[in-house]
Amino acid sequence: MNQPSPTHQRLIDQGIINAPDSAKGRLLQAAATLFKEKGYERTTVRDLGKAVGIQSGSLFHHYPNKEAILRAVMEETILLNTELMKAALAESQQPKDKVLALIQCELQSVLGETGAAMTVLVYEWRSLKEENQQHILKLRGIYEDLWINALTEAKASGSVVIDPFVLRRLLTGALSWTVNWYRQEGDLTIDQLAQMALSLAIKPS
């Protein structure tokens, strides 16, 4: 596993997310993979215990039930990737550069180590009870606001010609779908892919 980025490490140090090599961190990574591959409903507590090499009952030393594990998977990935996006935006000056930074962050999130958790976030949030749904949707709203604000700024500068809300939805589909065809071992790097995606969003200068 790669070393955590400075942003990732800061969140670990602050106790906002779990270290990947901690007991909880390993559990959440295993849960994300199982929830993605089997679906939340079809994944049993026994499956989760087996994946991390512990008795299923021992899971409840960390989380009270399976839904709490699902919520934690979603919460940690959205918090981490929101902070990574904020850090990337802070280093970008021009509206076009901000959009590129967000594209790069999202591609890294769906194609990198948080890819399974991001998929779970998209497809399994309805499996949560209402209170937990609202919590996750609130966090996701903060994430999406970063996108809308950057695209709105780009539109104001003349770089974007379509409605920011519509453009974000188009980009969401395009970027999330890359998990189905992009191969890390291929000739196309994530940065090159990000530049291509940017050309779909920004009009030629």
CATH topology: Tetracycline Repressor, domain 2
Q: What structural class do helix, strand and pairing data support? A: mainly alpha
How far apart are the first and last residues' alpha carbons, in Å? 40 Å
Domains (count):
1
The low-pLDDT segments are none
The level-1 CATH class: Mainly Alpha
Describe this entry's structure for a reader.
The chain is mainly α and about 200 residues long. The protein has a single domain (about 5-200), classed as Tetracycline Repressor, domain 2. Helices cover about 65% and strands about 0% of the residues. The chain has nine helices and no strands. It has helices at about 5-15, 25-40, 45-50, 65-90, 95-110, 115-125, 130-155, 165-175, 190-200.
Task: Chart the SSEs and their pairings.
Elements: H1 6-13, H2 23-38, H3 45-52, H4 66-90, H5 95-111, H6 115-124, H7 130-156, H8 164-177, H9 190-201
Comma- or semicolon-separated keywords:
67% helix; elongated; 205 residues; mainly alpha; single chain; Tetracycline Repressor, domain 2
Outline of this structure?
This protein has 205 residues and is mostly helical. It has nine helices and no strands.
